[in-house]
Design a protein that fits this description.
Strand content: under 5%
Order of helices and strands: HHHHH
CATH class: Mainly Alpha
Low-confidence stretches: none
Distance between the termini: 11 Å
Structural class: mainly alpha
Number of helices: 5
CATH superfamily: Fumarase/aspartase (N-terminal domain)
Number of domains: 1
Helix content: 55-70%
Radius of gyration: 15 Å
Largest sheet: none
Length: about 90
């Protein structure tokens, strides 16, 4: 998933794509990014934007993602995501 595609037409140059893809480096931050997502989810429930049921469903998916990460099921070189945040958002 490319975050830039919404604003730019045409394909990204291969050299820029290599520069922009940080997932092989920042995949190790997946637990921390999941924790940030959980904090945001709790705040969205507090604000009435998410229901408790929606929160629980998202939380279960984050738990599954973390389990797969801990089981080394992600090959960051084979995934299409630019960074760890876009990986979690896609999954």
């Amino acid at each position: 998933m490319s975050l830039w595609k919404g604003r730019i037409t045409g394909p990204m140059d291969a050299s820029m794509e290599r520069l922009n893809k940080s997932l092989p480096v920042d995949i190790r931050l997946l637990p921390q990014d999941a924790a940030v997502n959980r904090a945001w989810m709790a705040e969205l429930v507090r604000l009435g934007i998410l229901t408790g049921e929606e929160h629980d469903a998202l939380d279960a998916e984050l738990t599954n993602i973390l389990r797969e990460f801990e089981d080394h099921k992600f090959d960051p070189h084979a995934l299409p995501d630019e960074d760890v945040h876009s990986l979690i958002e896609r999954l």
